[in-house]
Write a structure and sequence with these properties.
single chain; 154 residues; alpha/beta; Ribosomal Protein L15, Chain: K, domain 2; 2 domains; 3-stranded parallel β-sheet; 6 strands
């Protein structure tokens, strides 16, 4: 009958930890600590990033400090000055921009920026618009529609 007081681990499932530095009799001549040196002494603790006294990599490569934001979203960017090639009244979305060659492949979200002038009324669908782009599009008689994930429409 199995009870909590007679349960034991399988043979070989639990190993005793290696007791290092407990005299010559336990592990031979150097007591499991290798030869002489800093690591053979008692109380030794190597600080993280310590490289044996040579100049650490964090100081050798000062320009590599900082971090890269892995959550940054990169946008496909189109300026409104480039949209004058479309007919007035056209609905401009990611598919039309890829066909026109203004956007590479349409995998990233689309952002419309306000550089240039727009001389026709267009309905533009994008993930984001800059404030000046919105202003210039409405001034030309067009409309802006914020569509999430316009890139997936391609």
């Amino acid at each position: 009958m199995i009870r909590l007081d007679n349960i034991s681990a399988n043979p070989g499932a639990r190993k005793d930890r290696k007791r290092v530095g407990r005299g010559n009799g336990s592990k031979g001549n150097y007591s499991g600590k290798g030869c002489k040196g800093q690591k053979a002494r008692s109380g030794f603790r190597m600080k993280p990033g310590f490289e044996g006294g040579q100049l650490p990599i964090i100081k050798r490569l000062p320009m590599q400090r900082g971090f890269t934001n892995i959550f940054k979203t990169e946008y496909e960017v189109v300026n409104i000055g480039q949209l004058n090639g479309f007919e007035a009244g056209t609905v401009v979305d990611m598919v039309k921009l890829v066909e026109a060659g203004l956007v590479k492949n349409g995998l990233k979200p689309l952002k419309v920026l306000g550089e240039g002038e727009l001389d026709r009324a267009l309905t533009i669908k994008a993930d984001k618009f800059s404030a000046t782009a919105k202003e210039k599009i409405t001034k030309a008689g067009g409309k802006t529609e914020e569509v999430k994930h316009a890139a997936q429409a391609v």
